[in-house]
């Protein structure tokens, strides 16, 4: 938690649940990533947190943007981004969304199927397109692989086809999974797609761009490698694979830029035991899986939690949300421990919750409004 | 799909994704359940769908209401419900919510721990309280058991304590899990809690009410037993357990009342194959797990899907939502088949989506607005 957030929470005591996010930390993370990978162009993954103050700060820093929908394209433009600085990175786009993005000046699009390519040729003619390749997601806490990407063989045919359709066969992309803690996954993926660059050059198509996706991890409850380790591993692999004929490099960080800039302040609604013999206490908060903490599904993302009683004796807990839904349990098997003194009405903090929280929140499940947001 | 919904979709062609819900069907379901269990008082589980036209219709039919939050209490009162007809059925309540509900005249509260009981004694003095007991959820497609309920032994102590604290020890409740397809689960639970009625009577506490929860199933893709089967099984078990000294019976149906009254109309955004060798097509819709279809988590609830090409040759599909999230997959292992002719831009219908869809929808994940709602 940054000193600015600590001060805001102490002075304002904002109603819970809420997210408090320090935009200066966003800038710090952006600069750290740029320093670690100076040759890469950063396209911020807007879906991680599309709040206007974040986008505006990133526009000022020269960031580009990876949009998942036309609504996200619009949010970037409203924040001052030039349309050339926006990539429409979702491989699944409505025709109406492609048309509107193209009309707004967006000229860079992702795809992973011939069907999508044909939609792009028709509704965004002449645009730069890049094909997403399916790679291993081992090492990622929030893997993505089954839904997106195609094989290297299919990608080859699709890039040839892109040219025939009057599109600009710009490059390739992959995604190693979100909250990826292994640098080796990037190295393996780079080696894999680099061969396709060579192969397509021989077939007469000169790709110019490699999009390495995002996935760079944030420190949650457990330690993760620093961003420099990823920068070094990636540059090493790029040089191995491409020598000094490096293509343009694109990265699409979301979590890394905003997660640790935010803290969710929540209230303990109830601390109880199933029965007197059970040592595990159930701690119910006023935010849960349907109030924004969707990434606790399967206990995938394990947030660090602090309380007013830290330092005192702790005991094992299960942690759940405030709704009547049995699926609204955050942690039951991840060995969380919280102070024995914790009680109803206490305020607790969930750290590094600046990414993938606010927009996930259900609009009104069980009648609860989405969490409030404070950008400071 | 009711004829009224079919006509509305054909004539209005509303923008997708949207829910169209026939309020007459809600009335029909309410009446069918009342006929199947005439001795039970129906408390509609507002969380299933809190839309004003639904609540208003149910108020007119004499329904009572099971609210999960103070916001849901308010929604009931706005629709014309008397506060005495509202039960605050969430066992996890903020002190502020208890206070506001009590001030509004709500006098019936659930709990399952001594901590919650003490909150109720302090902030809703003299109220009728009922204790939720943990029972088996086998047979439920959406089980609830780990988060709620206490043991019979603890419940006994809690009901004695309720009287000491000046509360009215009104009854017991259980929940056999949502979309419960086995009548035996109700029978087993009734037998279990009935013994506690006797036991407490001997200890000087006369419980007056048994809350059987909800869970009555809707027909989704697969057949389920009719509501009369549940009515018969429950009445048989009640008579076995209580003879002719039946306590007041409360049921809290949500899904059964509203699910099959609603249809989600969605658009196919993309149909593609991973590679030419793969027979499975990926069908991407403009609604997914984060757009309202949260109950497809783990492929638990399997909606029936119709398309404009029904009757033609079908092939295996995986079905996913429109976001960039790899977890936004509805069905991959449930052997769905859709017509080979299905293509981008087609409108499809997801049936029996009137329950647990609208409020679950994320407020803006990936920039997508929650689905529109039409009550007709």
UniProtKB/TrEMBL annotation, chains A, B:
<dbReference type="InterPro" id="IPR022644">
    <property type="entry name" value="De-COase2_N"/>
</dbReference>
<keyword id="KW-0456">Lyase</keyword>
<dbReference type="GO" id="GO:0033387">
    <property type="term" value="P:putrescine biosynthetic process from arginine, via ornithine"/>
</dbReference>
<dbReference type="InterPro" id="IPR009006">
    <property type="entry name" value="Ala_racemase/Decarboxylase_C"/>
</dbReference>
<comment type="similarity">
    <text>Belongs to the Orn/Lys/Arg decarboxylase class-II family.</text>
</comment>
<comment type="pathway">
    <text>Amine and polyamine biosynthesis; putrescine biosynthesis via L-ornithine pathway; putrescine from L-ornithine: step 1/1.</text>
</comment>
<dbReference type="Pfam" id="PF02784">
    <property type="entry name" value="Orn_Arg_deC_N"/>
</dbReference>
<dbReference type="InterPro" id="IPR022657">
    <property type="entry name" value="De-COase2_CS"/>
</dbReference>
<feature type="active site" description="Proton donor">
    <location>
        <position position="324"/>
    </location>
</feature>
<feature type="domain" description="Orn/DAP/Arg decarboxylase 2 N-terminal">
    <location>
        <begin position="24"/>
        <end position="259"/>
    </location>
</feature>
<dbReference type="GO" id="GO:0005737">
    <property type="term" value="C:cytoplasm"/>
</dbReference>
<dbReference type="InterPro" id="IPR029066">
    <property type="entry name" value="PLP-binding_barrel"/>
</dbReference>
<dbReference type="GO" id="GO:0004586">
    <property type="term" value="F:ornithine decarboxylase activity"/>
</dbReference>
<dbReference type="InterPro" id="IPR000183">
    <property type="entry name" value="Orn/DAP/Arg_de-COase"/>
</dbReference>
<feature type="modified residue" description="N6-(pyridoxal phosphate)lysine">
    <location>
        <position position="47"/>
    </location>
</feature>
<protein>
    <recommendedName>
        <fullName>ornithine decarboxylase</fullName>
        <ecNumber>4.1.1.17</ecNumber>
    </recommendedName>
</protein>
<keyword id="KW-0663">Pyridoxal phosphate</keyword>
<dbReference type="InterPro" id="IPR002433">
    <property type="entry name" value="Orn_de-COase"/>
</dbReference>
<dbReference type="InterPro" id="IPR022653">
    <property type="entry name" value="De-COase2_pyr-phos_BS"/>
</dbReference>
